[in-house]
Amino acid sequence: DLEGAEERDIAQDMATVPQEFDSSYSFTALEMVTLGRTPHLGPLESEGKQDMAVVKSAMERTDTWRLHSRDLDELSGGEKQRVIIAKALAQEPTVLLLDEPTNHLDISNQLTVLDILEDLTEEEEKCAITTFHDLNIASKYCDFLILLHDSEIYAKGTPEEVLTEENIRDVYGAEVSIRRIPETNSLSVNPVSGLMDPKGTRERSFRVHFICGGGTGGPMMNSLKRKNFTVSAGVLSPMDDDYKEARRLGIETVECSPFSEIPESKHRKNRKMAEKSDAVVVTEMPFGEGNLKNLELAEEMSRVRPTLVIKQKPIEERDFTGGRAKELFTSLEERATTAKNMREVISHILELEGKTAER
C-alpha cells in the first residue's frame, strides 16, 4: 500500500527504469548511477564508502563500470540503458518497474538487458514488473503476464494461459499462430493475418490435403482453415505437433501409432482422403522408414492432382532412408509446383481455386 508512504521510503523499495531518459545535464555514467543513492542519504549528506561500493557493484553487475568516466551523451542506446538500470540497482530496491526496457535497442543489447533482468530476479530475488509490446519477449522472460485491453485487465496468468490465439485476436484484432519453441521452451507468436481472406468468411468447396509432419504443416493448415478451405491431413502420429494442431482445428486426419511404419490400411485411407481433394500440399518434413509411405502417396498424387511442394532445404538433408526418399522426391518434383514458403503456397491454392471455379 503506497498511500501515505513517504517518497523516500518508496524510493528505497522501488526503482524505475523509464523507456527513454533525456538529461539536460552532462553527467558521466558514474555520476548518473550515484544518483541512485539519493534515497539513502540525508539532506546535504554526501556519499560514503559504502554508498560508492554499492554504486560500483551495480555498475559491475550491468557491465558499465568500464564506462564510468564516459559522458552519457557519448554512450550508445544499449550502454545508456544499462547505466539507467545500474542507477536503479544502486537504490537497492526490492521491486524494479521498467517501461519497455528493450525499446529502440538492437537484438544484441536487447538480449543483454533481458539477461541482466533475468539474473536479478533469479539470483537476487528481486521482482521486476515491466511493460512489453513484444509478445515473444514477454513469453520467454516473464513468469506471469497481465494482458491489458482498453486500460483494463483482459487476461492474467502464465504465458500459456494468457498468450492464446483467441486472446490475441480479441485484444489486437490480429490472427496469429502460436507454437512452442523447443530450444527456448517458450511460446512463439507468429502473425498470419496478412494471409486472411479479405472477402470475409464465405464458404469454400475447394479441398486441400496435407502430407506433413514434425510441425511443418500446422501454420499452413491453420491459415487455410481460417480462410474456410476444407482441409485434411495424413498420415500423422498423435505425438506429432501437426496432428495436435489438426485436431485443435477440427481437421479430418488419418492417424497411426508413433515409431512404426504406416500400416497399409492407413495408407489406403490416406489415399482415399487425398483423392477427394482438389490439391495436395507436401511440406518440408524429414523422411524415414516410418513415414516413407507418405512420400510415396505424394509422388502418386502428383500424377493426378495439382501438388504443391515446400522446398528450402535439399532433400538430401531430410532423407533418412538411404536414398529412397530422394528418388521419390525427385520424381515428385518433376510434376509438382515448388513453393518456398507459406505465402507462396496460399497464393498457388487461391489461383487453383480460381481456375477450378472457371471450369
TrEMBL record:
The keyword Transcription regulation does not apply. One of its GO terms (molecular function) is ATP binding. Signal peptide: none annotated. InterPro entries: ABC_transporter-like_ATP-bd (IPR003439), ABC_transporter-like_CS (IPR017871), P-loop_NTPase (IPR027417). Keywords: Translocase, Transport. PROSITE patterns: ABC_TRANSPORTER_1 (PS00211), ABC_TRANSPORTER_2 (PS50893). Residues 5-175 form the ABC transporter domain. The keyword Translocase applies. This is ABC transporter domain-containing protein. It comes from candidate division MSBL1 archaeon SCGC-AAA259E19.
